[in-house]
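TICKET: design request
STATUS: open
ATTACHED STRUCTURE:
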């Protein structure tokens, strides 16, 4: 018998003897891992919001700190970049609604999995 065969037999025996009976006796809906998954969804949404806010603040600070370019083409490019970013910020309410909807759907789905 090879060493890998012996390790496979030992792993199978351990799984049958301890892992499977123990796993069948655990109620997954009341486990700390399940509750932590619900909390992690909310924490993820908060982290996304904070990162987005910090990114906007950093962009605003960089935009204010840069001098106005003397070349007209560079000035137009800078204005175009700022206008594009402002246009993207008009979509923020829609993005927030989508994130809230995703958060609600994931919480409801996890609540359904408890039953």
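STATUS: resolved
RESOLUTION: sequence designed for all positions
ATTACHED SEQUENCE:
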């Amino acid at each position: 018998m090879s060493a890998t065969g012996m390790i496979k037999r030992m792993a199978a025996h351990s799984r049958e003897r301890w892992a499977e009976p123990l796993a069948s006796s655990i109620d997954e809906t009341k486990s700390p891992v399940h509750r932590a998954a619900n909390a992690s969804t909310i924490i993820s949404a908060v982290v996304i919001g904070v990162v987005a806010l910090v990114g906007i603040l950093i962009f605003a600070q960089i935009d204010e700190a840069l001098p106005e370019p003397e070349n007209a083409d560079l000035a137009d490019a800078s204005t175009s970049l700022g206008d594009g970013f402002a246009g993207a910020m008009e979509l923020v309410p829609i993005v927030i609604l989508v994130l809230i909807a995703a958060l609600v759907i994931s919480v409801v789905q996890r609540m359904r999995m408890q039953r």
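CLOSING REMARK: The mean pLDDT is 79. The two ends are 46 Å apart (CA to CA).
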